[in-house]
Amino acid sequence: MTPQTPRFAANDADALPLFAVPEDGLEAFLAARPAEQGAWLRSTGFAAGLGELALLPGDGGGLAGAVAGLGDAAAQARGRFHLAGAAARLPQGTYRLDSPLTGPALEAEALGLLLSTYRFDRYRAQAPVQAGFVAPAGVNATRVEALAAGEFLTRDLINTPAADMGPEALEDAVFALAARHGATASAVRGDDLLAQNFPLIHAVGRAGPQAPRLLEMTWGDAGPRLTLVGKGVCFDTGGLNIKPGASMGLMKKDMGGAATVLGLAETIMALNLPLRLRVLIPAVENSVASTSFRPQDILTARNGLTVEVNNTDAEGRLVLADALALAAEADSDLLISMATLTGAARVAVGPDIAPFYTDDGGLADEIAAGGAAGADPVWRMPFHAPYEKMIEPGIADLDNAPAGGFAGSITAALFLRRFAGGARYAHFDIYGWQPADAPARPKGGVGQGARALLGALPQVLGL
Q: Residue ranges of the alpha helices (H) in 299-360?
């Protein structure tokens, strides 16, 4: 799989203007335009509503540019990447943004313009043509391109069906990413997982058509240590507690945690941030076979904790447990896990918000601030200690699927915390999927939480 490389167009003097106009600035804008353009916009009924787009006629029947509406503050509060929705409808060509926006708002819209150029065309005979954009003045183009490249990688990985994105292909993606940035990658596969004490990863993945594996990538030789752990369940049937067909339909995205940490790693390395990065991905398929792990099995994790399996469809926390236990054996200044872990998180906050858990108030504040600045909505959820007893079944140390259905995202997060050691830690329970087309976010795989984390790193790690 060849990754897409989102780029702003070169500083093209012939680029057409794309004017961004708020509703309360429309009259002033019309008055400043040539008379024929102002008359044209009035005659078409252009009102600068959010998402509106009007093309400006030029001499000889050509195109002189376009105008996109920014609406008002109330409309803007109900979404993000406001210009991207209009920009996606532009005719082919190169455009230069002319906007009253500044600072983080301008950077977010510039990112939205680049994200609007994403197309998943691996299985299409012909890719659609699209507009290109010049980097707006005042925007750090290198940073925005790195953010978009990370998001494109995440989307490509999630969107690829499991037939072409099993554990082997996910391993290939890790090694290819490492090669692009001079990082080091390695893998522990199959029965070697048992020999090297990753019993939960082996148990979950042993029935799959491809051998389970633990993937590792390291980069950087100085600075604070950041460890990212991503759930890489390349397809999830539910195992012997098999999912109904309607619930299995999107399970190619169950490696969305792995895809998101790889996208974040792409951005970190492209920006050459002064830190030491470690990425750990347990890559498995949760399949049905005579070798599948079973309900009521008791498994012993890498760190010695025993787990009673009360639902084989709660497998993500099992494979993450071994990876987190490995991470806890070395020093990390910040340890992050990301996973498409629970349906309970979707019930709580819907598909658009990434809930996260941490005991560290300062870290939570920085992640929230990073999410607000990066147009990456997140919400802190509680590690609620009184619920610890819900994950303690009595027959073993831990229960992977407490009965009753209450607080499912919280109990999963509490389960993972048992394996994270004493590091500064946060866990993200993401969805990884955009259920319907939205500005800069076509239906399909999507990253969540990565930009929030990236924005938090300077303060959290002292970069």
A: 316-328, 343-349
Amino acid at 439: P
Q: How many domains does the chain contain in total?
A: 2
| Tokens 């072409």 found at | 164
Q: Is 243 a catalytic residue?
A: yes
Pairing, β 298-300 against β 132-134 = unpaired
Please name the residue that has the structure tokens 């995202």: 409
Which tens digits make up the pLDDT trace of 412-439?
999 999 999 999 999 999 999 999 999 9
Q: How far is CA 288 from CA 24, 81, 292, 355, in A?
A: 59, 42, 6, 30
Same-domain check for residues 159 and 255? yes
Residue 122: pLDDT over 70: yes
Whether residue 138 lies inside any domain: the answer is: no
Q: 341 pLDDT exceeds 80? A: yes
CATH of the domain at 239: 3.40.630.10
User: In the prediction, which pLDDT does 127 show?
Assistant: 67
Last residue within a domain, chosen from 101, 129, 157: 129
Q: What are phi and psi of 130, to 5 degrees?
A: -155, 170
Name the catalytic one among 243, 276, 380, 424.
243
Average pLDDT in the chain? 95
> Crossing angle for the helix pair 256-270 and 450-461, nearest 10 degrees?
50
**414 near 391, Cβ under 8 Å?**
yes
Which percentage of the chain shows pLDDT scores above 70? 100
pTM here? 0.97
In a domain, 21, yes or no: yes
Q: Compute the distance between CA of residue 433 and CA of residue 154 in angstroms, rounded to an integer.
A: 11
Name the phi and psi angles at 369, rounded to 5. -65, -40
Residue from 80, 189, 317, 451 carrying the catalytic annotation: 317
CA-to-CA distance for 259 and 278, rounded, in angstroms? 15
Active site residue 253: no
pLDDT for residue 129 is more than 80: no
DSSP states of 193-226 as a string?
HHHTT-HHHHHHHTTSSS--EEEEEEE-SSS-EE
- CA–CA distance, 234 with 329 (Å, rounded to integer): 26
Minimal CA–CA distance to 74: which of 91, 51, 50? 50
Distance CA 83, CA 89 (A): 10
Residues whose CB falls within 8 Å of the CB of residue 352, separated by 6 or more in sequence, listed in order: 377
Which of the residue ranges 76-80, 337-341, 369-373 would you say has the lowest mean pLDDT?
A: 76-80
- Give the residue numbers spanning the domain of 73: 16-129
